[in-house]
Amino acid sequence: MKKFKFGDIKVKKATPEQLTDRLLLVNLYFTQAITLIIGLVWILFQKRNPFHILNFPEGARFVAWGLGLAVIMLIVDFVLTYIVPEETMDDGGINELLFRGRPIWHIALIAAIVSVCEELLFRGAVQYAFGPYWTSILFAIIHVRYLRHWIPTGWVFASSYGLGLIYIYSGTIWAPILCHFIIDLFSGLVIRYRRES
């Protein structure tokens, strides 16, 4: 049996045309696992309890915050698709590859995993350390596929800042998690059914 060596791992940039569905999903789930681990470790280094941060709130007020911001973001996104040239909002085709032909349950699963992992890191850990402004700059930077155009980069920053504000005002991380989930789910379903028709 051949011994595994970490040095054998080769990392190289792939274009969307080179990505198979399996490779895309492995990359997605791997990066989300890394995001979750970094978030949990960072929270522990802050001497905070991740379970306390993820405590589900007693009231349903967080739903109004999460749903309200999601509706606003979806309306703005809808307007942007009509006033901004399509190539300006291009993400390199990654979202289309990810959601095109994907079953609804899998789109919902992806949206749930991404929203929990990213919000735990960015709102739960990074925002606690740096505040919503710098967290939103970092959030925009890690969405590297949008950095080629200033409009989607600005929109990712503004969306992140909104998520940070509803986290502060609602007092629970479940408000930004819900908002993030709704946005990703809706976007995934739009891509799936738009491409299907």
UniProtKB/TrEMBL annotation:
Pfam families attached to this UniProt entry: Rce1-like
Biological processes per GO annotation: CAAX-box protein maturation; proteolysis
Domain CAAX prenyl protease 2/Lysostaphin resistance protein A-like: start-end pairs: 103-186
GO molecular function annotations of the record: endopeptidase activity; metallopeptidase activity
Transmembrane segments: 23-45, 65-84, 104-121, 166-191
InterPro entries linked to this entry: Rce1/LyrA-like_dom (IPR003675)
Coiled coil: none
Record keywords, A-Z: Hydrolase, Membrane, Metalloprotease, Protease, Transmembrane, Transmembrane helix
Protein name stated in the entry: CPBP family intramembrane metalloprotease
Native species: Paenibacillus apii
Lineage, uppermost ranks: Bacteria, Bacillati, Bacillota, Bacilli, Bacillales
